[in-house]
Amino acid sequence: MNNWAYNLDMLAQNNVLDFDAPSFITDQAPRYIGAPSAPPSPYIGPPLPNAPALKQPQIDEFKKQKNKLPENEQQDSGFIKNPSWKKWAFGILAAGALVTGIWKFKSITKWVKNLFNGKSLKNLNWKNTKKFFVNTGKSIGNFFKKGWTKFTKLFKK
Q1: Is there a contact between 43 and 7 (Cβ–Cβ < 8 Å)?
Q2: Distance separating alpha carbons of residues 16 and 50, to the nearest angstrom
């Protein structure tokens, strides 16, 4: 008889709930009122010992626990402490990435200028572009056709 009703009945038996929760949920007449303690009982086994009273806060708040360290150690502030060599290495990498980005951006701007001036579009050979896409499409189609025939030959043997 391990189901959701049994779990709620165990909570009532151990004084967590003070009513018949399954009958309340299913909208039936209650089997008992209060925490059941005398037979006949729908519970298996003896009641568990009472849980110790927990120190519940009066308001909803979070109190950070302070670590107790010996006097010669400092309290951890929670921030990550990187050594200076890591900071310098990151700075050098960031500066190099910035210089590379600026250099690449200049070459892209030249290409965009030429594109809008019409120099790049005049140099394109549209017949070769069409031929490239037709040949690429045919080669992709042939790849799948050859693969399918090889796959079907496995089952014909």
Answers
A1: no
A2: 9
Q: pLDDT value at position 146? A: 94
CA max distance for the chain: 97
pLDDT-flagged residues of the chain (< 50): 39-40
To 10 degrees, the CA torsion angle through 63, 64, 70, 72?
Answer: -120
Report yes or no: 36 and 18 within 8 Å, Cβ to Cβ: no
Q: E strand or H helix at 52, and its extent?
A: none
Query: What's this model's pTM, rounded to 2 decimal places?
Result: 0.26
Phi-psi region of 47 (alpha: psi -120 to 50; beta: other; left: phi over 0): beta
Q: 96-117: per-residue pLDDT in tens?
A: 999 998 888 887 777 777 666 6
The DSSP element (H or E) to which 17 belongs, if any, is none
Asked if residue 40 has a cis previous peptide bond (ω within 30° of 0), the answer is yes
